[in-house]
Amino acid sequence: MIMKKTIAAVLMTVVTVALAGCETQTESQQRATTGALVGGAGGALVGQAIGGNTQSTLIGAGAGALLGAVVGSSTTPQPRGQQMCRYQDRYGQIYTAPCDDRYYRGQY
């Protein structure tokens, strides 16, 4: 019983510290952190359900956290101004620059 309370206290502390750090993170970092927390918790539950021992729970938590962080980070929407396009100037030189409104309206 004491072990369960200790584990619960440690998990609550980790979640609190992780969420407190979100204030200074970018949106991509916030999504990766949230994905890692949710994925780790889900992976731990699945690992425990499948293996029924501590080793499978830890493997599931690690795999879930990794997958959650990758998915959370990759699903961050890109700001509109960050999209880069290739252009050709009147001398034939190709260069990259932020896309203009013609790109977003499909008039390119």
Q: Overview of this structure, please?
A:
By secondary structure, this protein is mostly helical. The chain has two domains: 2-77; 80-108, no CATH class. It has four helices and two strands. It has a two-stranded antiparallel sheet. A hairpin with a 5-residue loop joins strand 1 (84-88) and strand 2. It is elongated. The termini are far apart. The model has no long low-confidence stretch (mean pLDDT 80).
What is the average per-residue confidence, as pLDDT, rounded to a whole number? 80
| Low-confidence parts | none
Major beta sheet, strand line-up: 1-2
Rg for CA atoms = 22 Å
Sheet with the most strands, sense and barrel status: 2 strands, antiparallel
Distance linking N and C termini: 66 Å
Annotation field: number of helices: 4
- Kindly state the number of beta strands: 2
User: What characteristic shape results from the CA principal axes?
Assistant: elongated
Write down the domain tally: 2
Secondary structure class reads mainly alpha
Report the helical percentage. 55-70%
Percentage of residues in DSSP E strands: 5-15%
Order of SSEs, N→C? Answer: HHHEEH
